[in-house]
Amino acid sequence: MNIYFKYLFIQWKSQLQYRTSFWLLTIGQFFMPFTVFAGLYFLFERFGQLKGWDFYEVALCFAVINLAFSMSECFARGFDSFSALVVNGEFDRLLVRPRNTVLQVIGSKFEFSKMGRMLQSVVILILALANLSVDWNAVKVITLFLMIIGGVFIFTGIFILAATMCFWTVQGLEVANIFTDGGREMAKYPLNIYQKWVTRFFTYVIPFGCVNYLPLLFILGKNNGGYPILYMIMPLAGIAFILPCLIVWHIGVRHYRSTGS
């Protein structure tokens, strides 16, 4: 972790070399997703509710997923832009260093301007929580925290899987965006508004349902019974999702052939 924080510090200093550009980018990231949120507001203003969910309940779902995605984009951007390391032959250099490749790739790039999007998500989260009558207790607070962390791990896992494909394709595949950008857009809404096969896929294969829909039912008191502890640990499925992704990554590293750049 020591090295990770050194990477973090170096990248932070590097990006602050152009302060005006950095802060303008950060402000832009703060305001950009508001257009999407405005669309959500107008949708509920027109229709009132969406399959039993009101505006602030969906806003909570929206904020959790957006916050998780922006944190992944900020701290795991190295995997999202991994194809450049392969094309330029820079991954060869990482392989000869006596450090884990995961640590080196994740430390190769941080995008701190995404903090603007994080801040925007926090604002929406506070707005949603302030307008929901939730009977808070320690279990629900921990559940909400784990929902965000679980989401970060899921998006990071998808970034790792997409990066692994570069070992065979060299260039990054746009199809991976179906699960990153597409997954983010889909998970902004409760899963029960979709077809059953979509709900099952995004619960049992890519466990977005375990970090937003199911724990949200518990937090909002819509779960109709069940053990609170089960709902609290459901987001851990999101954290566990990264384990098979790391296994696939190590298989990819073993099959890596340099581009000779």
SSE map:
Blueprint: H1 2-15, H2 19-31, H3 34-47, H4 55-75, H5 77-80, H6 82-87, H7 90-95, H8 101-106, H9 115-130, H10 138-169, H11 181-187, H12 196-205, H13 208-211, H14 213-219, H15 228-233, H16 236-240, H17 242-254
Helix pairs in contact: 2-9, 4-9, 4-10, 10-14, 10-17
Describe this structure in words.
With 261 residues, the protein is mainly alpha-helical. The protein has helices at 2-15, 19-31, 34-47, 55-75, 77-80, 82-87, 90-95, 101-106, 115-130, 138-169, 181-187, 196-205, 208-211, 213-219, 228-233, 236-240, 242-254.
N-to-C span? 31 Å
**Outline:** globular
Number of helices: 17
Largest sheet: none
Task: Output the keywords.
261 residues, globular, 17 helices, mainly alpha
Briefly say what this structure is.
The protein has 261 residues and is mainly alpha-helical. The chain has helices at residues 2-15, 19-31, 34-47, 55-75, 77-80, 82-87, 90-95, 101-106, 115-130, 138-169, 181-187, 196-205, 208-211, 213-219, 228-233, 236-240, 242-254.
